[in-house]
Amino acid sequence: MRAAPDLARLGRFALVVTGSCPDRAANFTQQLETSGLAWTGFTVSGEPDTGRVARGAQLARENGCDMVIGFGGGSALDAAKAIAALATNTLPVETYLEVVGQGQPLENASLPCVAVPTTAGTGSEVTRNAVLTSRAHHAKVSLRSPLMLPVLAIVDPELTRSLPPAVTASTGCDALTQLLEAFVSSKANPMTDALCREALPRAGRALPRCVAHGEDLDARADMALASLFSGLCLANAGLGAVHGIAGPLGGMIGAPHGALCARLLPYVMETNVAAISRGPHVTDGLPRFAEAARLLTGSTGAAAPELVDWLHRLVARLDIPCLSDWGLAPESVDILVEKAQKASSMKANPVALDGNELAGIIRRAMSPPQ
User: Fold this and answer.
1) Do 240 and 184 touch, CB atoms closer than 8 A?
2) Which of 110, 180, 259, 294 is the most exposed place for a label (fewest CB within 10 A)?
């Protein structure tokens, strides 16, 4: 990766936002120094919260940073986008947050933000929002604005080769979920359809290979592309009930976002298929799920039930823990349903799901399939 000359055209002093292991960015920051760029570091341990990104924005202002670089997984990238926005929009972060805040638009352009993903999962390098945890509300919500889109995304599969299997599985399942939800979304369109049709078979083939053989660069490249496309797709077609549940759930328990998505995904798809089958638009909705089954399984005769079966087998193969293993208690299900119904991701689910259907999804995801 030789990106420093491109970065030098954007500014002279960068805040480099990394995950909890900043040493992974050592070669990258050395390139910055060789190109005459000054920088200071800022780490984000785990998923970013509102307090942490507010401190990052203050650090950027105090040091006179004129650009922000996110180097790491989705958490580092989301933190970098939020910091770049809050560095120039100085009201309390809650002013701009969705759901738990006032949702006011940003008034000023963000600092230029560059995204360098080191995982293949979130697609955050090409989206215009940052998912943040509000500890006061025990919720994960978005800071969202067209002004937050990174000005440059550098996607290098080599950076993902050292990821351990569990992280590869979790982040890869996030990308797969985003592709599937965008493909069956009520807001799907010809552009996102084309991207999903290209990326879903790649993800279906490559994800298990990346988990089992992390040095397989071809598989890593396929997943990097799938992740990139998933970000473009979610930004232009929305998501669905998986993310509608996983978002608030992540604010309630400490678990990787991708692992929550993976555990919920088969049950959400199964519930969507059942709900559509009962409704008046079955011939409009079900073909989407059947095509997704064909794209992932490679079988020309696959139908919607094969999609659900394939997803269950994938989750088992990747050894994704159940929601109860992550600490979700039965008495929290009703609270989670209430929060999920308010989530913005629910708006693009292909069919409206009621509280009982959402509770059924969650309860089934709490235990291994029978």
Assistant:
1) yes
2) 294
Gap between the Cα atoms of 350 and 178, Å rounded: 14
Q: With a cut of 70, which residues of the chain have pLDDT below it?
A: 1-2, 4, 280-284, 370
d(CA 174, CA 230): 9
Question: Hey, which residues does 40 pair with through a beta bridge?
Answer: 15
Q: Are 319 and 306 in contact (CB under 8 A)?
A: no
Which amino acid belongs to residue 58?
Q
Beta bridge partner(s), residue 97: 143
The token pair that represents 205 in the structure block: 């083939």
Encoded tokens for 63: 């040091």
Contact (CB, 8 A) for 18 and 42:
yes
| Three-class DSSP category at 13 | strand
SS3 49: strand
Say what the pLDDT of residue 35 is. 85
Report the C-alpha gap between 218 and 246 in whole angstroms.
30
Q: How many CB atoms lie within 10 A of CB 298?
A: 11
Whether residue 150 contacts residue 161, with contact meaning beta carbons closer than 8 Å, is answered with: no
Strands, DSSP E only, in the chain?
A: 13-18, 38-43, 67-72, 113-117, 129-134, 139-144, 152-153
* Residue of 165, 196, 142 whose CA lies nearest to 347: 142
How far apart are alpha carbons 40 and 142 in whole angstroms?
26
Asked if residues 54 and 85 have their Cβ atoms less than 8 Å apart, the reply is: no
| Residue 143 β-bridge partners | 97, 130
> Whose CA is closest to 49, among 108, 107, 99, 94?
94
